[in-house]
Amino acid sequence: MSISDRFAELAHIRDSLGAVEADPSRIVMEKILSPTEALIAGKRTILVGTNNYLGLTFEPELLDAACAAMHEQGSGTTGSRMANGSFAGHAALERDFAEFYDVPSAMIFSTGYQTNLGLLMAILRPGDKVVLDSHSHACIYDGCRISGADFLAFRHNDPEDLRKRLRRLGGDAEGALVIAEGLYSMLGDIAPLADLCAVAKEYGAWFMVDEAHSFGVYGERGLGLCEEAGILDQVDFITGTFSKSLASLGGFCVSRHPEMQLLRYGSRPYIFTASSSPANIAAADAALRAIRTRPEIKDKLWANANRLYDGLKGLGYELASTVSPVIAVRVPSKEEGARLWNALLDEGVYVNLVLPPAAPDSAALLRCSLSAAHSFEQIDAILSAFKAASAGSDRAVGASAH
Ligand code: PMP
């Protein structure tokens, strides 16, 4: 097999994106101007696809903490915690997460992806049973796959379907692992966590929730949707990432089971990769402090989400779910999605273009993720851009309102 044969499938994906002139890998942020603006192709562009939910990436407290950590501890750790040892900041951040969640055990990993991989690869054995939401993120599927466990999906956000699948497992349901997310990143819908948890517990299964998109955004204290659903004392494992609300790079896992600490001795994505850099740890720590002490940031995010949601509804767009910081506009075809995405860029607005198979149940999504750092003026400019981008389309504005 030649090298071009090996890469033929990937070339096909690139070419099909090129055919609709919508290859997001071509987008280069030439200059980042703020948490919500960048220069793209020389044009000042409002960013509405960043996952920078709390808008903390330029917050002076984070920048100062990250710069100080870099000066004091260096630019990188140059190895894994098992081989090279932990820096004091790693251990302190784990203590902060454990304290924030009021649990005996927290561990941090180098990315959110590795957190899920690291947990699942360590706790699952070949033959174990996993029942996961069908819309689960790739790293949850990958962790299950690599572990050798038997995994099957329940219908997205459907506790009754979960019940059916657990019932069919018979005696194997006891000790099975049920996995859901909090806020789903593509459609922006939230999981019925209290119901899912109750079903899992009824069958003696463990319950794991990935709060990658909901940590810092939901719950009175910002702990996420498990807090909002009132199940913090029942859920077995909560994972999350530093790369969204926490404006850094890394991931965390917390558990009410103290045994979770033992992951350090067997989790390959923890052991065989370099630990997070001092700057990443310090920024995440400062962001965690902001979540704990400045609830008004979260309130601003919600005000922005409501304003964009109402505005898009008013323009006649079909939105994928109820209001949340992820607002996905359904577009009837891949071609129309690509056309609108390019037209929005021309208008100075960057959203995420989501095409099948990443767009569940629909032809294409224009995914908007809000930030607390957006101003109302920017939200109104985003709405004007949607209006202008839709002009000339016979399917967009108003078409889905009837
Ligand atoms: N879980 C979910 C639900 C995600 O959406 C993502 C990333 N988008 C991750 C985990 C991985 O996080 P990270 O990008 O920090 O590796």
From TrEMBL:
One of its GO terms (molecular function) is pyridoxal phosphate binding. Its cofactor is pyridoxal 5'-phosphate. Pfam families: Aminotran_1_2. The keyword Ion transport does not apply. Residues 46-385 form the Aminotransferase class I/classII large domain. InterPro entries: Aminotrans_II_pyridoxalP_BS, Aminotransferase_I/II_large, AON_synthase_class-II, PyrdxlP-dep_Trfase, PyrdxlP-dep_Trfase_major, PyrdxlP-dep_Trfase_small. It comes from the Bacteria. SUPFAM superfamilies: PLP-dependent transferases. The keyword Acyltransferase applies. Its EC number is 2.3.1.47. PROSITE patterns: AA_TRANSFER_CLASS_2. It is an enzyme of class 2 (transferase). Belongs to the class-II pyridoxal-phosphate-dependent aminotransferase family. This is 8-amino-7-oxononanoate synthase. It comes from Roseovarius tolerans. The gene is bioF.
